[in-house]
């Protein structure tokens, strides 16, 4: 019987290794930029075309390579970072496995130009699918330039699995932001389709954060620092009032390497306990410095997972450091042990006693002038009450919008005169400005007011998106949006849906985005805050949003717009309109978030409550 086990050719072995190392264009960006950092670069330029599918190029001013090293770097397991197994426990460089360049060259067309400071000429190497095409001496500046073209050109199946350009660009931006955060002392630039997206000069960490994520982060940064013999922590955490509804900008770096660790994230979240509302996530950028002997970074080729020798101690130190920071910045309420709580009454203020003088009479207390205006309106409320009692039938004519504010197109309930007219009267009451109790044949129906509005508004926004006819309310003065380049990119992706909802945007001469109009359904809601909420929900999605982003946008709009009805006192007409539109909606039982809107309390349940 013939032998069946064979040694794979290097080209095939490299393509197999590329399956883990090179998953998408963002993987190439990560590997090339980390190599530039290891080369001691002080300036790194990233150039992207066609979301990295066309070209990914990284240019640095690092130490460069000799002719031999330039050829050897494409060999599998060729590295300058380690020499023996013991070196794995003292790694301080970004790369060390010697797989990245070989893997990239096996699935793309690569052109390398490099030159050392002492060399007269540099080296240019061209490789096509692991096959060396040419090698020659050229004139080149000090440093290295690597251009990766036509990624996965020789593996069509892998190329077809890549997502849309906006999604791939967001992944590239994520990698760029992580590396730029880890090395604020290095100059970075990011050019996409011949347009400069980022130009980051060498600076301090706080300024780098603001440059990457926007000026609004300047107000929420709180410095965090803790030094122990085992691990040192430095960085910034966000103030609780600036927490977001999505897990967005949260970064852990260990020895300047970005990592993902749910256990350490829990340490930070536990420090914010009772300071954040449910479902809110704080911002943080934390750097851990630890002896490489106490960690193992050789867990996965992407090197974003790290094993710690004593993870529990690090958890406790991080939790303590964040809590101390929040306390120092007066973000955690403190107790005043010097005050007598038995006599403390913060709701009662004692007027300050003025010293007596020859011109003052201690028995005289002048009446505040501020209350004099109230005399002008004495009796006015009685007149209003009398008017409402004499002419209740005119209210629906005077305020028809109370019943029509949430009209749902194609709603069968709108054709029922007994529900749509002002004469309809549901047997309902409002409780705590949060719930509506409706009397039904089987007992009582308890309705969550806010969730009901979410469902009604969601259906209305979906109708606008489908019909592309959202009504717009023009702003008296255009409002300039202050968003970072990553958010501008995502906003351009959803321009069609934004316009269909009723937003009106334009770009001014400086390239800034101006809001000219907002959907008429959002009431007094800030249009910029609403747009930022939509972007926040979409930009952290893990999959391609092209198929479901309309539903996601409508859901976010409904959630944000329904906030104004939380704990709002409703009149009879508003209650009737809400109930009518809820029963005529696409799903009266569940909110767009999948939460129950109502609960039936039958007679048996009510009896049990009284026992």
UniProtKB/TrEMBL annotation:
Q: Where are the transmembrane segments?
A: none
Domain of life where this protein originates: Bacteria
In what residue span(s) does the MutL C-terminal dimerisation domain sit?
428-569
Alphabetically sorted, this entry's keywords are: Coiled coil, DNA damage, DNA repair, Endonuclease, Hydrolase, Nuclease
Where in this chain does the entry annotate a coiled-coil region?
370-397
Q: Output one GO MF annotation.
A: endonuclease activity
Q: Where would I find the DNA mismatch repair protein S5 domain in this sequence?
A: 209-327
InterPro entries listed in its UniProt record: DNA_mismatch_repair_MutL, DNA_mismatch_S5_2-like, HATPase_C_sf, MutL/Mlh/PMS, MutL/Mlh/Pms-like, MutL_C, MutL_C_dimsub, MutL_C_regsub
* UniProt entry tagged with the keyword Glycoprotein: no
Q: Which Pfam families match?
A: DNA_mis_repair, HATPase_c_3, MutL_C
Location of the region described as Disordered in the Swiss-Prot/TrEMBL record: 346-365
Classification via PANTHER family? DNA MISMATCH REPAIR PROTEIN MLH, PMS, MUTL (PTHR10073), DNA MISMATCH REPAIR PROTEIN MLH1 (PTHR10073:SF12)
Say what the protein does.
This protein is involved in the repair of mismatches in DNA. It is required for dam-dependent methyl-directed DNA mismatch repair. May act as a 'molecular matchmaker', a protein that promotes the formation of a stable complex between two or more DNA-binding proteins in an ATP-dependent manner without itself being part of a final effector complex.
**Into which family does the record put it?**
Belongs to the DNA mismatch repair MutL/HexB family.
What name appears for this protein in its UniProt entry? Answer: DNA mismatch repair protein MutL
């Amino acid at each position: 019987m013939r032998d069946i086990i064979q040694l794979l050719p290097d080209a095939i072995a490299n393509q197999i290794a590329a399956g883990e190392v090179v998953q998408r264009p963002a993987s190439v960006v990560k590997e090339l930029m980390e190599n530039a950092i290891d080369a001691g670069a002080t300036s790194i330029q990233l150039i992207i075309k066609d979301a990295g599918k066309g070209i990914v190029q990284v240019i640095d001013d690092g130490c460069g390579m000799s002719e031999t090293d330039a050829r050897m770097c494409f060999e599998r397991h060729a590295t300058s970072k380690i020499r023996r197994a013991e070196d794995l426990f003292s790694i301080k460089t970004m790369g060390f496995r010697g797989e990245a360049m070989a893997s990239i060259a096996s699935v793309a067309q690569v052109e390398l130009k490099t030159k050392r400071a002492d060399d007269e000429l540099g080296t240019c190497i061209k490789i096509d699918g692991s096959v060396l095409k040419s090698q020659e001496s050229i004139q080149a500046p000090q440093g290295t330039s690597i251009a990766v073209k036509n990624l996965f050109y020789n593996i069509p199946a892998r190329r077809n699995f890549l997502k849309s350009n906006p999604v791939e660009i967001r992944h590239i931006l994520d990698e760029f932001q992580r590396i730029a955060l880890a090395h604020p002392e290095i100059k970075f630039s990011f050019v996409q389709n011949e347009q400069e997206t980022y130009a980051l000069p060498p600076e301090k960490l706080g300024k780098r954060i603001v440059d990457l994520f926007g000026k609004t982060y300047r107000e929420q940064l709180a410095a965090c620092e803790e030094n122990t013999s085992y691990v040192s922590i430095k960085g910034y955490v966000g103030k609780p009032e600036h927490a977001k509804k999505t897990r967005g900008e949260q970064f852990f770096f260990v020895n300047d390497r970005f990592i993902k660790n749910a256990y350490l994230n829990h340490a930070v979240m536990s420090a914010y306990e009772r300071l954040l509302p449910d479902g809110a996530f704080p911002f943080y950028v934390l750097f851990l410095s630890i002896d490489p002997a106490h960690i193992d970074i050789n867990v996965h080729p992407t090197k974003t997972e790290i094993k710690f020798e004593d993870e529990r101690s690090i958890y406790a130190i991080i939790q303590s450091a964040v809590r101390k920071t929040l306390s120092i910045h007066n973000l955690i309420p403190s107790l005043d042990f010097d005050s007598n709580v038995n006599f403390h009454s913060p709701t009662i203020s004692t007027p300050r006693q003025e010293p007596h003088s020859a011109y003052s009479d201690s028995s005289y207390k002048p009446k505040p002038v501020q209350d004099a205006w109230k005399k002008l309106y004495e009796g006015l409320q009685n007149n209003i009450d009398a008017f409402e009692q004499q002419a209740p039938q005119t209210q629906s004519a005077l305020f028809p919008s109370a019943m029509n504010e949430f009209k749902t197109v194609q709603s069968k309930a709108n054709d029922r005169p007994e529900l749509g007219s002002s004469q309809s009267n549901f047997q309902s009451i409002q409780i705590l400005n949060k719930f509506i109790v409706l009397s039904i044949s089987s007992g009582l129906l308890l309705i969550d007011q806010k969730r009901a509005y979410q469902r009604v508004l969601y259906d209305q926004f979906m109708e606008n998106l489908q019909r592309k006819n959202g009504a717009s309310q023009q702003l008296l003065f255009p409002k300039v949006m202050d968003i970072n380049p990553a958010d501008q990119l995502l906003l351009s992706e959803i321009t069609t849906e934004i316009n269909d909802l009723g937003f009106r945007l334009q770009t001014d001469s400086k390239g800034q985005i101006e809001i000219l109009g907002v959907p008429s359904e959002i009431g007094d809601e800030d249009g910029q805050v609403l747009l930022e909420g939509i972007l926040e929900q979409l930009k952290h999605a893990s999959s391609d949003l092209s198929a479901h982003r309309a539903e996601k946008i409508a859901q976010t709009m409904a959630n944000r717009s329904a906030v104004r009805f939380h704990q709002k006192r409703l009149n009879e007409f508003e209650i009737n309109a809400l109930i009518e539109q809820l029963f005529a909606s696409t799903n009266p039982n569940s909110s767009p978030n999948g939460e129950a809107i109502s609960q039936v309390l039958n007679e048996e349940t009510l009896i049990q409550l009284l026992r």
